[in-house]
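AP-5 complex subunit mu
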Amino acid sequence: MPSSCSIRALWILANQDTVVFSRRFPVVEKRWRAACERDKSLIEDDLNYTGVPALPTDSEIAAAFIDRKKREGSARGFGIRINQSVEGSDSWVDDPITRHIISLYTKNEQEETNRTLWPLVLHIKDHYCILVLPLVEPHHLKTYIRMCKRSDCGNAVGADESLSALLLNLPSITGAFMVGHMIGDIITGNVTEPEIVISASPSVGGLLDSLTGSIGISARAKPVAAPVAGSTASGAATSGAMASDTPKIGLRPLDRDAIRSFISSAMPFGTPLDLNYTNISAVKINGFSPADIPPADQKQPAWKPYLYRGKQRILFTIHETVHAAMYDRDEIPDRITISGQVNCRAELEGLPDVMFPLIGLDTARVELLSFHPCAQVPEHGNEKQALMFSPPLGNFVLMRFQALCGMRPPIKGFYQLSM
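Predicted structure tokens:
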């Protein structure tokens, strides 16, 4: 089984179900063919293939994708077994994940039987459908084909095979999802970073203001969209629910050069190395120089591919959201939780370690904490803790949190229904 993620091929289809961009990786495909040669009996006897299955052409992918939409009702598919499901289809497996990890049946002029292409990670962005095919072993494909033909449905308790257990043993699936999402962001120009804004407004007394002490971090509310009329919102919600499974129609043209440049830098030869668009862009603009080489006693982390030179500064912002469930009953207490994230932008020379004090973790009743890979996570249980991290360049999310809030909401409101 592959211990890392490798991509055999990827395709981008427009809303007319035509392939507008494709990329195949011969190095990874050679590994697939070698695995098929080792399991030749499985390929010929169990899967009834004559020879090693090769990658289909763009026209075959487009035709297979159209057939799947007709068979499954939409690009995503049903996800669960219904009356319209047919044996051998994704919905026959009866697992909602088949709306995101799909299979296609391809057939060329020289073959009489269909060949199954699986697992294909499907990501829909605007009016484009992105298909990413990671490398798996032939016996994984055989297991999935067997699931598509069994009479029972769903992942029953005690079943010998389940799709969840199969995907859990395939780390390449996670990498394929990351590749699909990153390419989708490049297509739509949505390669953004967490917003870091210097605000002169005073602190609003949020949870992280007490946790971080007096290091000069202030909380800032998220921007709120302008209100719209009730009828318009209702109509938009209805149409959005009906059209949520179909790609949106947009006017942004496909920038093939940007996609090719990203693929050649982020995943040369089909193996993703660094999918951070900020890192890749910075390396292309600044390049590498002898001054970028760190001292011999320091190891340069993967999230900082080159060293910064210039005016030094470090900025923080905090985004917090309060969730309240109010029952207006004495026997049921109200529940108030607060969640948010700490964004950081560090422009520091060299590879310094930054100390980030956290005060009051015990009294704050923090339920969930997650940190950026650059942070050294402290042990929980102490009232005063210090988070040490070696920041990457550009904007990044340092930590995310969720905690119970001991304060009462400033405004309470309850509805009453009178008959």
